[in-house]
């Protein structure tokens, strides 16, 4: 490879939920802005693995949609790190097979630097790059972007990673407590796509695009990439609110949730329904409130636009800390109990412009707009250094 060929940068992730891909795409977009000549790829690394692992990972969506308590149990069972025999056994077997495929993948694609935005692959990637270095004599810089901002799972941590990016001071402390060397942990913030930060649609543009009257209230309802939560019941409760708000309902990759939402009709033009959609910046910019599962991607995207959130659902484990973050920040409300409680919380914000403004200001203050750019710079710098440029 010549010194002038484009830098090869990889963002490894997997589509469990939508947040890992969203973070990877945010960093890739910033790389593109900093160095348009770079060859930057977002790669679903689990697609490279044996069919067994692909099937296991494919269970994530159905589990969190239908039996979230089971997910909570698994999260807790594997959260004790290397001390738990079960964790140790599964990890040893998984690491051996996944490492082998990752090594073959590195051989085929020859990246100059790699960032992972998914917990399942931190350790395998590091092990594969060590083997690659031994066999090929070149070191691939490797870092981790932890996309869960507070109570992330310990399996994210690989002490040998060159850098671990975290979103909050709590996550920085947790990363060190889980074994990451303190000088490799960088508090950068949650990576958000430049579409939400650098030139987002105005409220006026977004409403015109969606045919929502300027003086109506609008609520975005979403359950993350997998469409988690009682979306139809929530949509009905929001449509029944006194101010007759518009409800923008996004079902993500949840076809039965989407069908149930569509079965509600269009409520006189007030209900609009999407499956997995690419228009989140427009939908959020048009909304007064974002009612969502406690997914960090969605929460921080809404906050970047200054839109308060109402948490209507939360996965046990990695999202528990996000609930506390919203509660303590003033940038939203928490109403996890029922559709009625969620509707009350939404109405509280819709009917009180001053409260909405205060929450929106708190939301903006929590956003670190440079996060994805910081990660992109790290990738580019490391790639250049590894090429000796
Ligand atoms: N998202 C999207 N289209 C959809 C649903 C979700 O682009 O139809 C994006 C959303 O904007 C966010 C991510 O998917 O960036 C969801 O991430 P989050 O952390 O909120 O939840 P997860 O799906 O990872 O549990």
Question: Which secondary structure elements does this structure contain, and how are they paired or packed?
Answer:
Layout: E1 8-13, H1 19-34, E2 39-44, H2 51-58, H3 60-66, H4 68-77, H5 85-109, E3 113-116, H6 122-136, E4 142-145, E5 163-166, H7 169-177, E6 185-187, H8 194-197, H9 203-210, E7 218-222, H10 231-239, E8 246-250, H11 255-262, E9 271-274, H12 280-285, E10 289-293, H13 296-304, E11 309-313, H14 320-329, E12 332-334, H15 339-350, H16 353-366, H17 371-387
Parallel strand pairs: 1-2, 1-3, 3-4, 4-5, 5-6, 7-8, 7-10, 8-9, 10-11, 11-12
The structure holds uridine-5'-diphosphate.
Residues 17-19, 22, 222, 224-226, 250, 252, 276-277, 280, 295-298, 301 line the site of uridine-5'-diphosphate.
Key features of this structure:
single chain; 389 residues; alpha/beta; Rossmann fold; six-stranded parallel sheet; 17 helices; binds uridine-5'-diphosphate
């Amino acid at each position: 490879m010549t010194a002038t060929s484009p830098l090869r940068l990889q963002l490894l992730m997997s589509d469990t939920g939508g947040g890992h891909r969203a973070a990877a795409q945010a960093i890739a977009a910033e790389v593109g802005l900093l160095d348009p000549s770079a060859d930057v790829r977002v790669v679903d690394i689990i697609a490279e693995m044996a069919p067994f692992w692909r099937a296991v990972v494919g269970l994530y969506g159905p589990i969190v949609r239908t039996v979230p308590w089971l997910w909570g149990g698994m999260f807790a069972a594997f959260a004790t790190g290397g001390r738990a025999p079960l964790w140790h056994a599964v990890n040893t077997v998984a690491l051996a097979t996944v490492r082998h495929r990752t090594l073959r993948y590195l051989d085929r694609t020859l990246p100059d630097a790699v960032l992972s935005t998914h917990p399942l692959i931190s350790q395998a990637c590091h092990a594969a790059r060590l083997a690659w270095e031994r066999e090929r004599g070149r070191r691939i810089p490797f870092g981790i972007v932890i996309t869960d901002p507070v109570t992330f799972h310990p399996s994210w941590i690989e002490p040998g990673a060159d850098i671990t990016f975290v979103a909050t001071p709590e996550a920085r402390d947790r990363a060190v407590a889980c074994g990451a060397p303190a000088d490799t942990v960088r508090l950068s913030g949650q990576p958000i796509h430049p579409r939400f930060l650098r030139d987002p649609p105005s409220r006026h543009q977004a409403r015109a695009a969606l045919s929502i009257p300027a003086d109506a209230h609008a609520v975005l309802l979403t359950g993350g990439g997998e469409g988690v939560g009682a979306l139809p019941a929530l949509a009905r409760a929001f449509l029944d609110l006194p101010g007759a708000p518009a409800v923008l309902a996004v079902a993500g990759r949840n076809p039965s949730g989407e069908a149930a939402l569509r079965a509600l009709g269009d409520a006189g033009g007030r209900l609009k329904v999407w499956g997995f959609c690419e228009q989140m910046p427009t939908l959020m910019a048009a909304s007064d409130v974002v009612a969502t599962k406690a997914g960090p991607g969605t929460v921080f995207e809404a906050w970047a636009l200054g839109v308060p959130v109402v948490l209507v659902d939360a996965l046990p484990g990695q999202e528990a800390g996000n609930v506390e973050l919203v509660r303590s920040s003033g940038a939203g409300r928490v109403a996890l109990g029922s559709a009625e409680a969620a509707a009350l919380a939404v109405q509280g914000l819709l009917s009180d412009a001053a409260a909405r403004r205060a929450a929106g200001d708190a939301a903006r203050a929590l956003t670190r707009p440079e996060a994805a750019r910081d990660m992109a710079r790290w990738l580019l710098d490391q790639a250049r250094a590894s090429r000796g440029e």
